[in-house]
Amino acid sequence: MEKLNFRLTAARSAGGSRAQAIVGVVASGNLEVLLERASPADTCTIDIATAAHGFGAVWDAVVRDFVARRPAGGLRISINDGGARPDTVALRLAQGVRKIEEPER
Amino acid sequence: MTLDDILAGLFPNGHDIEAIGSIVAGRAILPDGGLIHLLGITRGRPLGANEAIVLAGRVIDIVKSGDRAPILVLVDSASQRMSKRDELLGLSEYLSHLAKALLMAEAEGHRTVGLLYGGSAAGAFIATALATATLVALPGAHPAVMDLPSMARVTKLSIDVLKAKAEATPVFAPGLDNMVQTGGIHVVWDETSPLAPQLAAVLERPAGQDDRGRLGAERGGRRKSAEIADRVVALAAVAQRGAQHG
Amino acid sequence: MTQVAANNVSLSWYEASARQRIDALVDAGSFCEYIGPELREISPHLSIFDLPEQFDDGIVVGRGRLEGSPVLVAAQEGRFMGGAFGEVHGAKLTGLLRAARALRQDVLILFDTGGVRLQEANAGELAIAEIMRAVIELRRTGLSVVGLIGGRAGCYGGGSLIAGTCSRLIVSEQGRISVSGPEVIETNRGIEEFDSRDRALVWRTMGGKHRYLIGGADTFVDDEALAFRQAAIDALKIKRGCDTTVLEAEQNRLERRLQRFGEAEDAVDIWQTLGIDAPTEIPALPTDAFLRAAKRRENADDAR
Q1: Distance from CA of C7 to the nearest CA of B (A)
Q2: Does the distance separating the beta carbons of B99 and C63 come in below 8 Å?
Q3: Strand duo C107-111 + C155-156: pairing
């Protein structure tokens, strides 16, 4: 497994009050994304474990795009990747933020 | 040791056993005069619906007798029978039924001891040996979940690679030592010593909880099972108390 | 991905994830997870094989409510390692069943499993045995363990043996229950014995409709979370025993099954013997029509 870590400055922090959210499943072409409120409000950390080696530059582009577009501040994001395509990764990250911002029942 | 040698070694006072195909059933008198029931699947045969229902029926007869005598389950089997017919007929229910019969016999006061003396695999192993309260083995026994060549095919790894990985962990490869280390087998008997006292020692163990997770932790083969199970129990209890107090 | 805000939104059980199933099954907002993904209790063994881990090791366990009544729930994620039992995965279910005994609560097991995880085969197999024992010990105190089967991985191998210890089984057409999988039978016995690529054969032999008809499952539902929820509510209403009377009744029904159907070559022969009209039509029948046709099924009430 290849491990990758990113620590990025986030312009906006994630809203809502849920402590954590999880989306996705670790399967071929899929990934799970665990989001926790464990970073400073202006920071987003992303830790990735991936079965597909050598795609560091692609991950870099996807996570930077995510942090630029979405309210990712304050989040510690942990990913177990089963070899997902970049657009699936982007989708899960967006789904994850939406989920953690959901009002609690 | 052949089955005859094993039975002669276990029961110096003699034993009485009949074979129904690959199934054996009978009884023996222990050195202290007590009765012990004998059941088994032998000759490395697969365990199918027809065999499982016969064995289960015998267990039920024993429980109905109310004699609370222990049951020794002798195991030298292949895996479950792999056939269209057995699955069509619902093999899972037959194997579960046999396991339930053994589990309930123990609960009804019949100490159940499994003796793995040959092979056993997968569904057959679960329905017989692993359904007894205390599982012991003789050297030379060879339990397996799946044979290594089949595992290699399914995992798409070479046998050599699998063998190399098996050196590092007892958690997946077939073999008696691995099943001991992971806590599935309580003790491997010494075949060079009299067997009857070794059986007596097992029968003297008090009936209790399923301690295989604890054994696996102590022996290092399963370091997480008992801990995770215990933590779930503890968390559920705390949550319950929290809910009660509002 | 439909957001289920209350228990009234349609969701395919087959397509859903373990977490989506729990969400749709229990009363809204009532689920509290034990050893959740944030604790990262992953498999200690998959890294040896350079395989990816999942934070919950492929099973979600916890407590929820069904129409207000508390119940413990376990849901397997069939898409992670085929929903197979590994050391941690199995231990979470073992612990839940033991917790149920201490708390005096019923348990729902949402099966979605290919059996034992080969990379942790011995641990997986021992987990199956420990779970079966824990189910019976729980049932003997008068509590229920209800299995729900309708996921992509089916209920195979050791999972099917656990299912056989449950007090009730709820199955959809998509569900399959079998000890050996189609490929394993074909590999071991040849394609003449079982053609694993013949999907119709697989479903006739192991699928939900056949299991329901021969008494291998107790309730047949649509591939719909609300249907599974209602069936679970109904299943938990009736207390079922787990004693020698029940064991004997099961012995009788299983002996009778061998006598009645032991010579059958195919499921259609069995359905014919059951007295079902137009047995070859069974696979194509929608649920309502199937349930009407299934009136002559074998049942396992008080004999499971």
Answers
A1: 22
A2: no
A3: unpaired
Domain regions of chain C by residue span: 18-239, 243-297
Taking CA–CA distances from C20, the nearest residue in chain A reads A23
Taking an 8 Å cut-off on Cβ atoms, the answer to whether C53 and A51 are in contact is no
CATH of the domain at B193: 3.90.226.10
Closest by CA position to C243, among listed C302, C174, C173:
C302
**Chains A and B are touching, with contact defined as 3 or more CB–CB pairs separated by less than 8 Å:** no
Backbone angles phi and psi of C138, in degrees to 5: -70, -45
Mutate to test the interface with B, among C125, C209, C243, C248 (most CBs of B within 10 A): C125
Q: Is the ipTM of this complex over 0.85?
A: yes
Query: For the segment A6-42, what is each residue's pLDDT rounded down to a tens digit?
Result: 999 999 999 999 999 999 999 999 999 999 999 999 9
pLDDT digits (tens, 9 = 90+) for C222-260: 999 999 999 999 999 999 999 999 999 999 999 999 999
**Which tens digit of pLDDT belongs to each residue from B74-84?**
999 999 999 99
- Partners of B63 on chain C (C-beta within 8 Å) are 244, 247
- Residue C99 CA, chain-centre distance (Å), reads 20
| Torsion angle of C-alpha atoms B169, B170, B174, B179, degrees rounded to 10 | 180
B interface mutation test: which of C97, C161, C272 has the most B CBs within 10 A?
Answer: C161
CA A63 – CA A79 distance, rounded (Å): 11
CATH H superfamily, domain C18-239: 2-enoyl-CoA Hydratase; Chain A, domain 1 (3.90.226.10)
Task: Give C220's strand partners.
Answer: C171
